[in-house]
């Protein structure tokens, strides 16, 4: 301590504040220690006038290592047991005060430069905005919806079922004999660890939407007319015409006196509705376990009009669907629901949606539909 020559009053040389070690933990002594700290904090804050100084100020007060505020933990450590509560409260108050002051100081210093930042980031509202492309139906979903709409117009309703099916619904109730090649695990993706269950309860990813037909017949008495659109799964290697996941639409009509000519008329109408009135259909014999007789349906190639081209392999015809009259054995599984094969009959058909979409839009690789390439997809927007 020295004396001012001018006034003779005692003045303190400007020594930077350091946190004192406390020995006296009485409330009065604590009050004074806190007061000293806060006034040092306040006056140092006021003398900060540059960004560098603000940074130094911040480091001096709150740096984890050797910052003044973190050091107040020593007060708490050295306090006798009975004073700890009181000291803890002060230490918390100091922490809140220091943090608020450091923040306020920084804001005060940056205030000037943030005005400049605002100026440089000014938005020109006359510039054109960012145009967000609108979403659109995927060509597969669009084809699926269009096909369903064709059948709805003929009085069909839509039925849906689970993608994870039991062996019973996917195969057994559809008249697949136990050793039928289509049941082979080569073609079917099965859920693991099912070996302890009976075969008919084992789960698999449905290989067709036909299980929905059985499920619907269990719930609904005849007559019925339904289409079952949905995703199906097969263990197929990917190539230009195969994908392990694809979509099917199957249909089922059951009533008294349903005949094969009803089936032909229905599908011929549907293909004309989808591909244009000049499209012809052709039915030729085939085999499916759940229909008898069964047929494959081809339409006249819409690309060459039936003259022969690469898509139709020069035949003028493109195979698009399977169909047939429901096998009486299938009705036996739902006989108690009113499906007596002696009294009723019906037809079923199924088509691959991707196949329809490829034909409709002239797409020659099924993978294009699944790769999610926007350049390809935006052509359908
Ligand atoms: Zn052709």
What gross morphology would you assign?
Answer: elongated
Strand content: 15-25%
Total DSSP E strands: 11
Instruction: List unreliable stretches of 5+ residues.
Output: 1-8
User: What is the H/E order?
Assistant: EEHHHHHHEEHEHEEHEEEHEHH
Characterization of the model:
The protein is an alpha+beta fold and 381 residues long. The strands form three sheets. A seven-stranded mixed sheet has the order 3-6-7-11-10-9-8, sandwiched between helices. Strands 1-2 form a two-stranded antiparallel sheet. Strands 4-5 form a two-stranded antiparallel sheet. Zinc ion (ZN) binds next to loops. The site of zinc ion (ZN) has 8 residues, from loops.
Question: Layout of helices and strands, plus pairs?
Answer:
Blueprint: E1 2-3, E2 10-11, H1 27-47, H2 51-62, H3 68-71, H4 73-78, H5 84-120, H6 139-153, E3 157-158, E4 164-166, H7 167-170, E5 203-205, H8 211-219, E6 224-233, E7 245-255, H9 260-275, E8 281-288, E9 291-300, E10 317-326, H10 328-332, E11 345-352, H11 353-361, H12 374-377
Parallel strand pairs: 3-6
Antiparallel strand pairs: 1-2, 4-5, 6-7, 7-11, 8-9, 9-10, 10-11
The structure holds zinc ion.
Zinc ion (ZN) binds next to loops.
Summed up:
The chain is α+β, with helices and mostly antiparallel strands and 381 residues long. Helix content is 37%, strand content 18%.
List keywords for this structure.
381 residues, alpha+beta, 11 strands, binds zinc ion
């Amino acid at each position: 301590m020295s004396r001012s020559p001018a006034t003779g009053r005692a003045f303190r040389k400007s020594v930077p504040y350091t946190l004192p070690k406390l020995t006296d933990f009485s409330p009065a002594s604590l009050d004074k220690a806190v007061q000293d700290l806060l006034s040092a904090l306040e006056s140092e804050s006021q003398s900060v006038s540059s960004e560098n100084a603000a940074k130094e100020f911040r480091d001096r007060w709150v740096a984890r290592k050797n910052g003044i505020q973190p050091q107040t933990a020593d007060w708490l450590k050295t306090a006798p047991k009975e004073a700890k509560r009181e000291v803890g409260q002060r230490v918390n108050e100091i922490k809140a005060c220091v943090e608020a002051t450091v923040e306020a100081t920084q804001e005060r210093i940056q205030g000037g430069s943030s005005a400049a930042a605002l100026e440089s980031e000014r938005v020109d509202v006359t510039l054109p905005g960012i145009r967000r492309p609108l979403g659109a139906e995927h060509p597969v979903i669009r084809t699926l919806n269009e096909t369903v709409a064709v059948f709805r117009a003929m009085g069909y309703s839509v039925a849906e079922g689970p993608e994870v099916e039991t062996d019973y619904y996917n195969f057994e109730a559809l008249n697949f004999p136990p050793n039928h090649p289509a049941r082979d695990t080569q073609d079917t993706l099965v859920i693991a660890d099912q070996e302890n269950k009976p075969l008919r309860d084992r789960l698999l990813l449905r290989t067709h939407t036909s299980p929905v037909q059985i499920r619907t017949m269990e719930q609904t008495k005849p007559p019925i007319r339904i289409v079952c659109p949905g995703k199906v799964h097969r263990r197929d290697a990917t190539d230009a015409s195969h994908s392990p996941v694809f979509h099917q639409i199957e249909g089922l009509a059951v009533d008294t006196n349903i005949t094969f000519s009803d089936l032909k008329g229905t599908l011929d109408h549907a293909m004309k509705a989808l591909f244009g009135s000049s499209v012809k259909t052709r039915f030729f014999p085939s085999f499916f376990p759940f229909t008898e007789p069964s047929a494959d349906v081809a339409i006249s190639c819409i690309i060459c009009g039936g003259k022969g081209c690469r898509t139709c392999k020069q035949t003028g015809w493109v195979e698009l669907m399977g169909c047939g009259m429901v096998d009486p054995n299938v009705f036996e599984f739902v006989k108690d629901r009113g499906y007596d094969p002696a009294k009723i009959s019906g037809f079923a058909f199924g088509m691959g949606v991707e196949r329809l979409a490829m034909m409709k839009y002239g797409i020659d690789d099924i993978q294009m539909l699944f790769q999610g390439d926007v350049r390809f997809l935006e052509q359908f927007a």
